[in-house]
């Protein structure tokens, strides 16, 4: 779909943008190569949702300039609410639209050799790491049109590198604030956890302008090398006018462990893909996702864990509610590749429809190409269990309140996993707002 | 609270158009303990469910009143707020909701907005009651009944009973699935509630519960009716002789014969 607001996307624009952004040559070439592929590639095809009329690629302006924040005090209240301000805020990146707004990294982290910075600083200062992993191992540029679009036009993001044997104890937090509808959020987060390291990272995508219409194209890549342990938490709350494509991808080496806790609470149409490739023997991928559809939005969530490694284990848990005339689609894929003997693939997807017009669908898929494995799935789509309601009401709790409690409980698996109190509280409040 | 009187008159209850209760009459006055016994499928749980307002059961005839108020007009939560409590034969599991939050929400729903129980007071009472019932304090932070053993669920029902302090409690097979020690503890909990302000209707299959909690009245239910009432000695005779003699005495035929 093209409109008269379409920003012209051509080679010369990308060259000049890349130059103005002081990017090294390899990155400019990387963008241009992606641009070239874009036209020939197809759109992604999320199962059971037709997206050919959705706008993922047209926008008025590629970037906007914002002023950075002087200090934590200067952050918007909505952002402050996400921070645990009682303790000292140690490791935090806040981005406002495309501008790196604030970065704090503790001395300890610096001493340990941990790198945490905005993505373009990383492109310039740490090419050896970024070039190796940026859309090479986890997400590939030529997967589909939106991946190539992303690579050509990425305009924000963050980079986190944890060296060998380093255990990062404090959670690392990133907040991506969007308030300008004209410029799309084409955001890239790259996390590399080196051998036997461990880290917890939590990100928020936050709309401050609830009226904004626009486009978000988000990719997060997580590389967990041998024996690394990564916990990745996210809460997305982009506004109802934002059409989002979000792809969070993991890649685990031997005995690595990657745990996702995703609270996908956008108010707008959303295509979400979360795939974990368990390459290494004995590696573990665990995905917990909760979603809440409201209003007229359509959301499609594909979660896949692909077992390549022997004795690798994948777990998928997805819980979602659909309210009003929203539609939520859950595609859960457990795939065991040939040779992955002793692998385990388990998934559970449950959706509750809270109104007559709401639609929910759960499609569990198991693809198994190896004999000696375990696999299982449970999927259900239904309404709030009348027996649970009856039980709570029999203790004096009014029906509305009983329903509220049951839904909070149903969406609790992610809330309880988030390591930052502020983010936990925010997710609980977002759920509360959505179910009221 | 000065205790309450629950009166059932000619209660008929159906499920999916099948009549289960065929005219039950019963009056429970403040301070009284009643026991209902009867063979499987007699309609005991149906009676308990109908009083509490279980959505699947339809009252087709008769009345239930609590201190003169029409219970059948009330929503389930209003019945609880009016002082009724049902310890269920099969309590539901509520994933993601902690026992502590659930019980606090229940208490606060009953106390009403602006009159919530102070948190510290609540925690103290909860701890004390759990200790009294010899429950692991971690059960407070576990999700409601999720993964609880049969016996733990029953104990958890009594915990709620003691925390909520209703005026009339219906206990549906609170003794089933309990080991001897657990039975004693549960009985101790129920007995601790005894006062002129509290009355109780216990549904049970076994005399052994009544050894610990002596009822004032024992009723026998068969085929959807209370067919015989008496004192504690009636339960002892049932334990010793079963139900055949009542059937013979009253000329009751089995359900199968009735339907034939
Ligand atoms: N949901 C239902 N659908 C159909 N029939 C039902 C349902 N619930 C109960 N019944 C029937 O109602 C009758 C009475 O059941 P009820 O549970 O009240 O018996 P009970 O006396 O409590 O038995 P028990 O001692 O086994 O607990 C039984 O025949 C039972 O099959
Ligand atoms: Mg029963």
Automatic annotation (TrEMBL), chain A:
Residue ranges occupied by any SUF system FeS cluster assembly SufBD core domain in the UniProt entry: 178-410
Pfam family, one: SufBD_N
Signal peptide as annotated in the record: none
Domain of life: Bacteria
Domain SUF system FeS cluster assembly SufBD N-terminal positions: 105-173
PANTHER family: FES CLUSTER ASSEMBLY PROTEIN SUF, UPF0051 PROTEIN ABCI8, CHLOROPLASTIC-RELATED
Family: Belongs to the iron-sulfur cluster assembly SufBD family.
NCBIfam families, sorted: sufD
Protein name, per record: Fe-S cluster assembly protein SufD
Source species of the chain: Pallidibacillus pasinlerensis
From TrEMBL, chain B:
Top-level taxon in the UniProt lineage: Bacteria
SMART domains: AAA
Keywords recorded for this protein, A-Z: ATP-binding, Nucleotide-binding
SUPFAM superfamilies: P-loop containing nucleoside triphosphate hydrolases
CDD domains: ABC_FeS_Assembly
Keyword Nucleotide-binding assigned: yes
UniProt entry tagged with the keyword ATP-binding: yes
Entries under Pfam families matching the protein: ABC_tran (PF00005)
Residue span, ABC transporter domain: 6-248
The family this protein is said to belong to: Belongs to the ABC transporter superfamily. Ycf16 family.
Entry-linked NCBIfam families: sufC
Protein name per the record: Fe-S cluster assembly ATPase SufC
Gene name per UniProt: sufC
